[in-house]
């Protein structure tokens, strides 16, 4: 009998404002939508298709230069919930995405073409806000130039019909930045830039940011929910926080609680941390977690996709066998080709064909000795190799580790790359199956773009820190639920595991301005 699996996605609401001015901690808490899947195969197929689509989109040179691909798959979506404006404040939820650098939202009146079944229309946080009181961003603003691929402000003001004599004296402040177009793998939208206040919702206090710049879309194709871009760029949320407070904007990290596509496994929020740790904080967490130190690898600048967090991958080990990565994954060339993108918006890790095939061959050589391949499951899920397994399978699967440039070695928990679930044997009998949760990105040497993507499923159970000040990405094994508890121990907070709602002292109120 087929069973239903609810689409799992995550919403962020702020729970704790640290007594330190350099750090804010927010919970990533899960909620359920009404979107259903007939079985696990359907859910995994949806996730694998989304991962492949997003990865391929990074290599389409003919698309708009600032293209993004938005997360749409089950179990992989993380959304940031906050309030827009103040008269009255309006709640909106946006996807958190480290693979793009713009914050944008659908705005009323809003028309979404081909959006049926893609979101829960009853959710109050997904009702497009009215931005009638928001201020437009002028054509001469650096933000306007940034969203239009660095087009000169004089050109943008001319498009906005600012008179020539006014352009010559740089006095086009009353002319709005013209609309911009974004395209991605299975949709697109047209938006304008606005400024307004945003607040991270808290019972008391609230973090209030004035003059925050965001995109507002009245029309989209196949995309009903906006994005909170955390990528490298002046319009991203971290960059705008850095303008407000360098200590808040120079790093962020998250620790995703392992869910294995089962919301019942999540008993605590997953912490999202804005701002940098002090050395004492890091040592305290290591003591509490009894885990190792962060393994850091340098960020690689990408001239074609400057908003990506690219790192160099040297090898992947399966058991004791170390498989060297191609040279293209160790660096990014002058055309923007190569490297591995660390991405919160892609579910499964994507590897170039030859590396993927080498990893699979070694993995299968080890596992095929013990378990029979399940070709039917591979066809149904888009993943592979898959096997008919028993309850002792996790102890018989070889360890997998990623080796990044700079001697950073990240050993994955077995559940991060081998998923066990109830499948079929091809004749109607239910049995346990397990699949390798890495994917073949194809031969991308000729098409260019990033060579690989590190997906969020493989990031579960790690704190992943984006150190923007030192230009590096770090990984540390953590018990993310315990990390959440330890981060909240120092403040006068109360937390409900089921909702993630907390309260803090009103004396911690923060009201800050941007611009």
From TrEMBL:
Keywords: Aspartyl protease, Glycoprotein, Hydrolase, Protease, Signal
Pfam families reported for this sequence: TAXi_C (PF14541), TAXi_N (PF14543)
Domain Peptidase A1: residue ranges: 78-476
Signal sequence extent: 1-22
Record-linked Gene3D superfamilies: Acid Proteases
Entry GO MF terms: aspartic-type endopeptidase activity
Biased composition (Low complexity): 489-506
GO cellular component: extracellular region
Superkingdom of origin: Eukaryota
Stretch list, region Disordered: 487-515
One of the protein's GO biological processes: proteolysis
Residue ranges that the Swiss-Prot or TrEMBL entry lists as coiled coil: none
Entry similarity comment: Belongs to the peptidase A1 family.
PANTHER family: OS07G0603500 PROTEIN-RELATED, PEPTIDASE A1 DOMAIN-CONTAINING PROTEIN
Protein's name according to its UniProt entry: Peptidase A1 domain-containing protein
Native source species: Protea cynaroides
